[in-house]
């Protein structure tokens, strides 16, 4: 009995469940996801993902709704964007700057090879020149006062100056200009004389005579000083034996010296012999021109050849100093100051840090606004001074000037009036009180009368 009652109650519960589902079940029904569930229009409009069918907590639901809305907007925006780009780009958007590196083209007909310089190179070059000029962001770089070409003793003989230039260039590789200048100062002041009574300082004889250990001590601050000591001693012997104690005046001769590469040779030839036959490309010139996209080269020697293929020859000497200074003062290898750099601010440098440039532009705008305000204040002050002549003691002067002007005008008018009156009087009275005009008329009448009588 008991078993049958339980069975009956269980059966009743099942019946209830199948015939009258609870409202809660109906709202959260998963029946439509069951296999073979009939499809109805209402089901069709429901989202197909099971996660969408189960109601989410409020926060999640809101987030989801926003995400859906965003997705819709995004897709619409993307569609619109394409259309806007096509329609508006010619007038409203600045055309994308074409940046091309140096390239070689061959004329199909003549077969002539032509080298096209990089895009915008002249604008960039002039911007660097401005930055390197007094008042510019890269003015006063270390190279301007301590560059290799400035470290020779100008009071020494030309031959010694050339030798000193060569030594400063040999010391400069992998070394900061300031450090190099310090080492050169020690050599010039402390290098002992090669014989009693001779002058101390940096010259070929003293280098030949100095102990390598002492020379190494004097230049210990520069990079690779051990190797440089060795190269300097060897080069000094070559100069003595092969070059009559002077430095070579050719690139081949200079590069034949130990520790002297093309960069040093071209710079040395320019500075010591005042002959520019190539560009001195150091790490700054190599790094910066590649960064600008002027060429894509692997080492300074490739960069030199690339630059020489298109850069006008009158720039070959100065470009080294310009770019070295830029690299030292603004375009630093780490922490470049793009916000101070004209190239970045004018959109000429493809490697510019956009954030720094934006900050720089903002700062410039603030400075401009400040200047405008100051000018307005000055103009206002000037206006106040103008309206208040007492401040300048003009209260006495102005009336007196006006008096002079009035008197002058009055005198002029009086003089004119008197003159007119005199002329009128003269015309009216003429000779014997008869007007000259009237007298002439009478004369004409008399002549006509005589003519008629004769006829
Ligand atoms: S990277 Fe920056 S600092 Fe260097 S040239 Fe470009 S804009 Fe100037």
From TrEMBL:
Gene3D superfamilies in the cross-refs: Helix-hairpin-Helix base-excision DNA repair enzymes (C-terminal) (1.10.1670.10), Hypothetical protein, domain 2 (1.10.340.30)
Name of the molecule in the record: Endonuclease III homolog
Polar residues composition-biased segments: 409-419
Species of provenance: [Torrubiella] hemipterigena
Record GO biological process: base-excision repair, AP site formation; nucleotide-excision repair
Compositional bias per record (Basic and acidic residues), positions renumbered to this chain: 1-12, 65-90
Swiss-Prot/TrEMBL keywords: DNA damage, DNA repair, Endonuclease, Glycosidase, Hydrolase, Lyase, Mitochondrion, Nuclease, Nucleus
Catalyzed reactions: 2'-deoxyribonucleotide-(2'-deoxyribose 5'-phosphate)-2'-deoxyribonucleotide-DNA = a 3'-end 2'-deoxyribonucleotide-(2,3-dehydro-2,3-deoxyribose 5'-phosphate)-DNA + a 5'-end 5'-phospho-2'-deoxyribonucleoside-DNA + H(+)
UniProt keyword annotation of Nucleus present: yes
Record EC number: 3.2.2.-, 4.2.99.18
Family of this protein: Belongs to the Nth/MutY family.
InterPro entries: DNA_glycosylase (IPR011257), Endonuclease-III-like_CS2 (IPR004036), HhH-GPD_domain (IPR003265), HhH_base_excis_C (IPR023170), HhH_motif (IPR000445), NTH1 (IPR030841)
Domain spans labelled HhH-GPD: 171-329
SUPFAM superfamilies with a match to the protein in the record: DNA-glycosylase
Entry keyword Transmembrane helix: no
């Amino acid at each position: 009995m008991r078993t049958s009652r339980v069975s009956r109650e269980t059966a009743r519960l099942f019946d209830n469940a199948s015939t009258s589902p609870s409202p809660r079940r109906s709202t959260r029904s998963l029946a439509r996801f069951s296999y073979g569930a009939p499809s109805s229009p209402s089901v069709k409009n429901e989202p197909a993902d099971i996660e969408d069918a189960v109601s989410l907590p409020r926060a999640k639901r809101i987030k989801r709704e926003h995400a859906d809305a965003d997705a819709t907007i995004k897709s619409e925006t993307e569609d619109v964007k394409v259309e806007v780009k096509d329609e508006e780009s010619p007038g409203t958007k600045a055309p994308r700057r074409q940046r091309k590196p140096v390239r070689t083209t061959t004329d199909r007909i003549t077969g002539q090879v032509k080298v096209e310089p990089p895009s915008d190179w002249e604008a960039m070059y002039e911007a660097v020149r401005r930055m390197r000029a007094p008042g510019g962001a890269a003015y006063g770089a270390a190279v301007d006062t301590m560059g290799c070409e400035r470290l020779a003793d100008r009071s020494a003989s030309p031959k010694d100056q050339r030798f000193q230039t060569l030594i400063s260039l040999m010391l400069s590789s992998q070394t900061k200009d300031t450090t190099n200048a310090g080492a050169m100062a020690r050599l010039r002041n402390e290098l002992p004389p090669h014989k009693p009574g001779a002058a101390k300082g940096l010259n070929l004889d003293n280098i030949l005579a100095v102990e390598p250990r002492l020379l190494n001590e004097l230049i210990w601050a520069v990079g690779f000083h051990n190797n440089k000591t060795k190269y300097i001693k060897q080069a000094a012997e070559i100069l003595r034996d092969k070059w009559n104690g002077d430095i070579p005046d050719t690139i081949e001769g200079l590069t034949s010296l130990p520790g002297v590469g093309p960069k040093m040779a071209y710079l040395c030839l320019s500075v010591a012999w005042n002959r520019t036959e190539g560009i001195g490309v150091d790490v700054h010139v190599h790094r910066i021109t590649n960064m600008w996209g002027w060429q894509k080269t692997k080492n300074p020697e490739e960069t030199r050849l690339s630059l020489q293929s298109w850069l006008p020859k009158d720039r070959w000497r100065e470009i080294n100093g310009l770019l070295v200074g830029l690299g030292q003062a603004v375009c630093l290898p780490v922490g470049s100051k793009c916000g101070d750099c004209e190239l970045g601010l004018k959109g000429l440098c493809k490697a510019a840090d956009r954030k720094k440039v934006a900050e720089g532009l903002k700062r410039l705008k603030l400075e401009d606004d400040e200047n405008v305000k100051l000018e307005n204040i000055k103009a206002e002050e000037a206006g106040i001074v103008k309206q208040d002549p007492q401040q300048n003691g003009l209260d006495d002067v102005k009336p007196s000037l006006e008096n002079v002007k009035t008197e002058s005008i009055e005198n002029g008018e009086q003089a004119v009036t008197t003159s007119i009156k005199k002329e009128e009087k003269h015309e009216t009275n003429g000779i014997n009180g008869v007007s000259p005009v009237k007298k002439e008329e009478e004369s004409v009448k008399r002549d006509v009368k005589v003519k008629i009588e004769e006829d």
